[in-house]
Write a structure and sequence with these properties.
Layout: H1 2-32, E1 42-47, H2 57-72, E2 78-83, H3 87-95, E3 101-105, H4 106-109, E4 116-126, E5 134-139, E6 154-158, H5 162-174, H6 180-183, E7 186-190, H7 193-201, E8 207-211, H8 212-221, H9 223-228, E9 229-234, E10 241-246, H10 251-262, H11 268-276, E11 279-284, H12 287-309
Parallel strand pairs: 1-2, 1-3, 6-7, 6-8
Antiparallel strand pairs: 3-10, 4-10, 4-11, 5-8, 5-9
Length: about 300
């Protein structure tokens, strides 16, 4: 069983190391077929917040550069990746035409949505669906039937899983319970999402905050996981990540995005990389796709405000 768990962790880590690079590769390919949007040879892509929870930041950066260099050697277009510290910095850079596109988690994206071309918002399909559910897992043997039973228990979650923690805080407050920071005895952030599942499996935690896609993948690799773990609560389906193009980028650049999407079948390497993540492709997202995340954020703000007045 330990061997199977280790195998699951190793495979998921490999997949996570490629996903950010794959997303970035799409945009650089698009840019290579367009007139340069700002009379420069370099497209500037900002990574505003952590997108993938199956690997750490260092591994992600290395993988991004490897995939980028491998693909761009056949394309006469340069690209520059920059870290963006906050939504406020992203907004300022986009207003000053220093940022062509942004890759970010959904929660941070909501802060910059007004700066993004609504016709050019994308996400990667991981698993069978475009949207994913945030879930809180417990062990079946613990017979946890409600959130209140987890008071002073151990929570585990991947680092940077802000949307997931927001969902959990809302679920707790709706039941008149403290937010996660004051409710659990410990809240341990681990480098990858598979570690969170495995640690719960081996009784190193009492609850794991993950996604349904990651739980399904871990269960495929080790069937004992789905037999011993169960979902206590689940969110509405949400977009796990967003890739957005600055609304100021000229149409000569953006129109090639759709053309590239239509020609994806001409890039077998890209299709193969997508298959490693159980992913089907990169798709446009709409306001409806973002609706559940907007509602969750609003619920959180209202509950925090109400609790503050009490």
């Amino acid at each position: 069983m330990i061997t199977l768990a280790a195998q699951a962790m190793q495979i998921n880590s490999h997949k996570g190391r490629l996903l950010i690079g794959l997303c970035l590769t799409f945009f650089f390919i698009h840019g290579s077929y367009a007139n340069d949007p700002y009379d420069r040879d370099t497209a500037i892509i900002g990574i505003m917040s952590r997108l993938v929870f199956s690997t750490n930041r260092i591994d992600t950066s290395i993988a991004t550069e490897m995939i980028f260099l491998d693909f761009m050697k056949n394309i006469g277009k340069k690209g520059m990746f920059i870290d963006v510290n906050s939504p406020q910095d992203a907004i300022q850079d986009m207003r000053q035409h220093r940022l062509d596109a942004v890759l970010t988690n959904t929660l941070d994206y909501l802060e910059i949505d007004h700066m993004i071309n609504p016709s050019y918002r994308y996400s990667v399909i991981i698993g069978p669906n475009k949207l994913q559910n945030i879930i809180l897992l417990t062990r079946r043997s613990d017979k946890i039937k409600n959130l209140a039973q987890l008071r002073q228990k151990r929570l585990i979650h991947p680092t940077g899983f802000n949307l997931g923690l927001l969902f959990l805080d809302v679920a707790l407050m709706k039941q008149g319970l403290p937010v996660a920071e004051g409710f659990f005895s410990t809240s341990n952030a681990v480098t990858d999402i598979n570690t969170a599942i495995i640690d719960l499996f081996f009784n190193k935690a009492d609850a794991a905050l993950v996604t349904d896609a990651s739980f399904s993948l871990a269960s495929e690799l080790n069937t004992q996981i789905s037999h011993q773990l169960e979902v206590l609560i689940a969110s509405e389906p949400m977009v796990p990540m967003v890739i957005g193009v600055n609304k100021s980028v000229p149409s000569d650049f953006t129109r090639h995005v759709d053309q590239m999407m239509a020609r994806l079948h001409e890039y077998p390497k890209t299709i193969h990389l997508l298959s490693l993540f159980k992913a089907k492709g990169m798709v446009k997202i709409t306001d409806q796709d973002l609706h559940s995340a907007r509602v969750l954020k609003q619920e959180y703000e209202e509950l925090i405000s109400a609790n503050g007045r009490e």
